[in-house]
Amino acid sequence: MNGLQISYGSTTTNRAAILNYIIKQRAVDPGYRVIDIGGAADSWSSPVTNTTVDINVADTEKTVSIDICVDEQWGKLFNKITEQGLYDFAICTHTLEDIYNPITVLKNLPRIARAGVITTPSIYAEIGTPENTNWIGYIHHRWIFDHLDGAMYIIPKLPVLQWMCKGRKFDTAGREEIMYVWGESIPYKMFMNNYLGPNGPTVLHAYNQLINGATADV
Questions:
Q1: Has residue 218 got a pLDDT over 50?
Q2: Taking every pair of C-alpha atoms in the chain, what is the biggest distance, in angstroms?
Q3: Which residues of 98-137 are buried (b: 16+ CB within 10 A; e: fewer)?
Q4: 167 pLDDT band (50/70/90 cuts)?
Q5: Which of 2-6, 37-41, 53-57, 163-167 has the lowest mean pLDDT?
Q6: Domains observed in the chain
């Protein structure tokens, strides 16, 4: 499979679908190998994973401790790939929005697995108030994820969004989470082509277009 399959859903339904998919693959191929990137804190995938990668684990036979934001640290995983071959499937759920450098993960996932799945909160959740009406989205998240022209769309969660989204309503029913299923590569685009400029009005206009698109069907 090339490109991305993009869909919305709930965390519960998406995780059930991922587990069911892997169970079906294992029924055909008992040696189907799965790696989870960033999944140590919420180990929902542990029943089906061969390896878990996280900054908050110790190195063991089934865990690899690296900072996934640092390209050089992926060498530990590349060594495993050299010895054992590519994983069949990579899981990366509710991780990219937390970290300072998601691009390193997106570049390296296809180097360790043949295919995989990524989930994050949807834009509808991240510019709404799912935690507290005093702030938008989830307080510890740095990025908003959406899609554009068949690619993952990565948007900085700037403080100005708090003011711009105040009083607006966002419908998250059935789309609290966005899921990207990838194969071979992970196409992505950065908001404003990764240049927040050249001035304030330009940035505000781009964010207004984004927000208006999210409220168009509410």
A1: no
A2: 56
A3: ebeebebbbebbbebbbbbbbbbbbbbbbbbbeeeeeebb
A4: confident
A5: 2-6
A6: 4-215 (3.40.50)
